[in-house]
Design brief:
One of its GO terms (biological process) is iron-sulfur cluster assembly. This is Fe-S cluster assembly scaffold protein NifU. With 133 residues, this protein is α+β, with helices and mostly antiparallel strands. It has a single domain, classed as Sufe protein. Chain: A (Alpha-Beta Complex). It has 5 helices and 3 strands; from the N terminus they run αβββαααα. A 3-stranded antiparallel β-sheet has the order 1-2-3. Helix 1 crosses helix 2. The longest helix is centred in the last third of the chain and has 22 residues. The chain is globular. 39% of the residues are buried. Bound molecules: FE2/S2 (inorganic) cluster (FES) (2 copies). The site of one FE2/S2 (inorganic) cluster has 10 residues, from helix 2 and helix 5.
Length: 133
Amino acid sequence: MYSEKVMDHFQNPRNAGELENANGVGTVGNAKCGDIMRIYFDIDDDQIIKDVRFKTFGCGAAVATSSMATELVKGKTIYEALEVTNKAVMEALDGLPPVKVHCSLLAEEAIHAALWDYAEKKGIVIEGLEKPK
Ligand code: FES
Ligand code: FES
């Protein structure tokens, strides 16, 4: 049912935990299942994501997509991170079963929420970023 990459990221999640010096934090919940994901960003003066952590209270697919999403945004600019969609995360994981696609949306939404939080704290506008619900 799950790809090897999904199982790997579920069993050995990358970048799990919290960041004390985070300057962008996003928390989102999945209305369908009640699972929760939080992403922490440490973004430097050049708007590069120097460090990232996540905490996910949810299913295995949500943990695996969080883990892969943090890998995909690490070292990227905030605009590159905006392009890390749930589709990109799923592709990087070699796919998810159809009933688990909604889990990957959490990762995209959490990235957006954390970027929004960063922009608000810095008083900047990130073009193309919509206010999280
Ligand atoms: Fe999310 Fe079961 S519905 S863990
Ligand atoms: Fe809820 Fe996966 S079942 S996020």
